[in-house]
Specification:
alpha/beta; TIM Barrel; globular; 39% helix
Length: 291
């Protein structure tokens, strides 16, 4: 943990982080350890389309002062645009419907990954799919593993460069997976008493289209939206808070911490100025308890 990290006492939380079970570099136990070290009230593990790390996450939080919130970040779409829906307060118990959905997403991802590998090979990039797979640790392969392999082979100097160029989602090599409908995912999470949250609004939806989505999503079970996020400037945060109020949504927020894979983002404080009030956690927990 960086020496510049603030001691956050017990006033703040981080409800959006990732571990080695998706594309983060911290294990679930390390997330808990570091969250407690900086005094977070609560931390949520929200790996991409994956809940496999939650048992380790819950176990690591036993007898600790930080509250562990089980979560997941599901890649969806609305109007053919990518949206991420976070599900919070997943309990330490089986969820057959959720697991079936995530397994299906991961199968689609594996197929897309192999096609992207073939595209890169055909494009002249001499990379090893075996090396890419070795990096995935416990989770699924993501673009980060491709970026690391491209770095190893000296095609790029950083993950960011790989994402901006060779692995750009609008580029010739990237292969998208078929995404589930955002409203359907919100309905599913709600039916399982998991709290649905719109992650980082403004990513692909803006203006009237975002408002249209929020109205429809709220009617189908959306509970909250992230108003405090590492990449938001002050105006975006104020706009997000105003939208949450307009659509009677609870507020959430987090750093989107990925460890060394996003070195500019730190746990709890994002790029240095992010603070998510613990009241967000308590209000969301209250909602969960009353479902």
């Amino acid at each position: 943990m960086s020496d510049s990290m603030l001691n956050l006492k017990t006033e703040y939380c981080d409800l959006h982080t990732h571990s080695t079970y998706s594309d983060g570099t911290f294990t679930p136990a390390q997330l808990i350890e570091n969250a407690e070290a900086i005094g977070l009230t609560a931390i949520a593990l929200c790996d991409h389309n994956n809940v496999s790390g939650l048992p380790d996450f819950f176990k690591a939080a036993e007898n600790k002062n930080v509250n562990a919130v089980g979560g997941v970040e599901i890649t969806t779409e609305y109007n053919k645009k990518e949206l991420h829906i976070v599900g919070l307060f997943i309990e330490n118990r089986p969820y057959p419907q959720l697991n079936e959905l995530l397994e299906n997403i991961q199968l689609r991802k594996e197929t897309a990954n192999y096609q992207m590998y073939k595209n890169l090979k055909n494009g002249g990039y001499n990379i090893s799919f075996k090396n890419i797979q070795k990096q995935k640790n416990r989770g699924t392969v993501n673009r980060v593993q491709f970026a690391n392999e491209l770095m190893r082979c000296s095609y790029v100097k950083s993950i960011k460069e790989a994402f901006d160029t060779i692995l750009n989602e609008k580029g010739e090599f990237y292969v998208p997976i078929k995404r589930d409908d955002a409203i359907d995912i919100i309905k599913l999470l709600s039916s399982l008493s998991i709290v649905p949250v719109l992650a980082h609004p403004f990513l692909n939806l803006k203006g009237d289209e975002l408002k249209e989505f929020l109205a429809l999503a709220k009617a189908n079970g959306l509970v909250a939206m992230e108003t405090n996020y590492s990449k938001f400037d002050k105006k975006q945060m104020q706009d997000a808070i105003a939208l949450a109020k307009e659509f009677s949504l609870l507020k959430s927020g987090g750093s989107d911490f990925h460890g060394d894979n996003k070195p500019d983002i730190q746990l709890g404080i994002g790029k240095g100025d992010l603070l998510v009030p613990a009241s967000y956690y308590y209000e969301l927990k209250k909602f969960k308890m009353n479902i």
